[in-house]
Prior knowledge:
By secondary structure, the chain is mainly beta. It has helices at 2-22, 91-94, 156-159, 202-207; strands at residues 57-63, 69-79, 82-87, 103-106, 112-115, 121-129, 132-137, 141-147, 161-166, 172-182, 192-196, 209-215, 218-223, 228-235, 238-242, 250-253. The strands form 2 sheets. An 8-stranded antiparallel beta sheet has the order 3-2-1-8-7-6-5-4, with no helix packed on it.
Amino acid sequence: MIAGKFAIVAAFAASVCGAAFAQGTQPNDTPQQSPENATPQNPQPQNGADPANAVIGSWEFSNADRDKFCHITFRAEAVSGGRRLDIDKNCPNFFPSTKNIAAWAVDNYGDLRLVDAQGATVIELSQVEGGMYDGFSPQEGRYILQTAAAAPVRTANDMVGDWSIAHSPGKPICTLTLANNPVGPGAASDVLSLKVKPGCDPTVMRFNPTGWRMQEGDLMLLSARGQSWQFEENDANTWQRVPESSDPILLMRQ
C-alpha cells in the first residue's frame, strides 16, 4: 500500500518537472528579459547637458558703467587649462588683466573662470541670470559679461554728431558730421546723410563717403560708388574699422 502511494507521488512530481522543462523555465524562477528590453531596477537620471555649452559664443565684457568694453568669443576646443577663447586686441587697453588670459572653464559651482596659461584663475565670474555674469577686481572694479545678443545696440540717434577719422588716438586725418536725415531721392531709406569737413586726408577722400547707416550694431560709412567701411564699437566714443589690419582706422567722437 505504501509502495503504491510512493509511486503515485513520484509520477505526479515527474509530470510537473516535465511541464516546466517544456516551457524552458525552472519552477519558481522569474522569466528573463532580453537586454534590450530590460528595465533598470534603479534607473539613474540621465543629464548629459554640459553647463559650458551655454557659454560658447560671442560675449561682451565691460565695466559696470559700460563706458569700457570689448568682446570675448568662447570656443569649445580644449587647450591647456580649459577651453580656447579669442579676446579682442583692445581688451588689455581697458582691462590689463585680460592680457594674461589663455583659456576658460566652468567650475563645479557654475562659476566661469578665465585662467592663465598655467591654469591659475585671473578673473572669476558668477552667473546672475541667463546670459549674464559679473565679477569684481580691486584693481579694475566690477566686471559685466553678457551675451552679444543681450548687449545694448547703438541706434542712429546715438551716433549723430561730429566724428574724426584717425589711424591712432589723438591724430585725426579727417572730421565729418553724421546727420539723422536721409541722403535724398534714389538712396535706400535707411541711408543717412553726412558732411565731410575740409582738410581730409587723401585716403578718406579717395573713399569719398556720402552716407552712413547702422547695420546689426555696426556703423557703415558708404560711398557713392557702392563701397563701404564697416566700424565696430570699441567703447562709447571709439569705433574701429573691421576687419582689423596692420594700419587701423578709428572713428572717434569729437
